[in-house]
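Ticket #4471: structure export looks truncated?
Reporter: QA, pipeline team
Priority: medium

Steps to reproduce: submit the single chain below to the structure queue and open the exported record.
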Amino acid sequence: MGSVRRRRSGGRVGCGRVEGEAMARQEPQERNYDNMLKMVEDLNRDLEKLLEEMEKLTVQATWMAYDMVVMRTNPDLTNSMRRLEDAFLNCREEMEKKWQEVLRESKGEEQKKE
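Actual output as written to the record:
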């Protein structure tokens, strides 16, 4: 310990500064690590979402291919599906009209109460 200089107060010269510098260097490194960890977690979450979307698209493509095979092997099915779709669209249109009518009636009743 002969080479270590002592301060008047009895402490070592320079030790506080060296420790402070090490801590100052460590804090940005810890922040960088935390930022990197968060970035990796976000990336994993995004990749999982993309994988789920790809799975959904794969299922849809599989059903589309299946439908194409069925339609080609049974042409009457195509006509039946068109009629079913037309009936569905007509039904939906009527439901929307009825819904608008109900809304108008309920607004009219509210205005009468006021």
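Status: closed, not a bug. The export was complete when the record was re-opened. Leaving a note from the reviewer for reference: The chain has two domains: 11-73, 75-114.
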